[in-house]
Amino acid sequence: MGTTVTLAAWTDGEYGTASFTASTFGTESQTVSSSWASHTPAGSAATLAFNATAMSPTVSYYAWIDIRTTSTTSVDGAVELTGSSNNSGALVPALEYRAVRTPSTSTTCAATAFAGSPTWIVGPSYLAVTSVPGSPVSSAITAPSGTTPELRFCFEVRIQSGASNSYQGASAIVTWQFTATST
Fold first, then answer.
1. What is the rounded distance in angstroms from the CA atom of residue 182 to the CA atom of residue 72?
2. Which is it for the CA torsion 178, 67, 133, 165, positive or negative?
3. Which superkingdom is the protein from (predicted)?
């Protein structure tokens, strides 16, 4: 004779849920001749005001660009000078430059910004305007917290020493690219 046993069991479950939101990261720039805005792509680049309409070899001209995070940015990041493109004009091969990050956006972009021990982005030796350093200098940029922190980059451009007389009257357009990456 056999017996059958039926076992009854109770069950219960527990669940956990979470929600996720991606960070936001964006930058914008301004120059003396352009307002705060996203200046992307290269065709919408901010115009650096060098006022270099009568250049001569070894005479330097200066201009700045400020970069900051947008008001909707929620994470910190870093900014690097990463390229020189969309360059045109017969004067391009004769141009060279250096660049520094200034201590504040109120710093005047002039020869004094390159004196002493500046934070070199390009330099202290001059590079052709079509080049950027092989190891870019990274500059920290913070997410806004009440006020928007800004970085100022000061550029010095000149015609290289010993440039040929054939460059007289020539002109050029140079576009530098900064790349910002969230951290």
1. 13
2. positive
3. Bacteria
Instruction: Give the pLDDT confidence of 74-107 residue by residue, as tens digits.
Output: 999 999 999 998 899 999 999 999 999 998 888 8
The helix (run of H) or strand (run of E) holding residue 177 is strand 173-182
CB 94 within 8 A of CB 168: no
* Spatial contact of 66 and 150, defined as CB atoms under 8 Å apart: yes
Rounded CA-CA distance 129/107 in Å is: 23
Q: Return the bridge partners of 37, or none.
A: 29
Identify how many contiguous H helices and E strands the chain contains and give both numbers.
0, 9
pTM: 0.88
**Token reading at 142:** 């913070």
What size, in residues, is the chain?
183
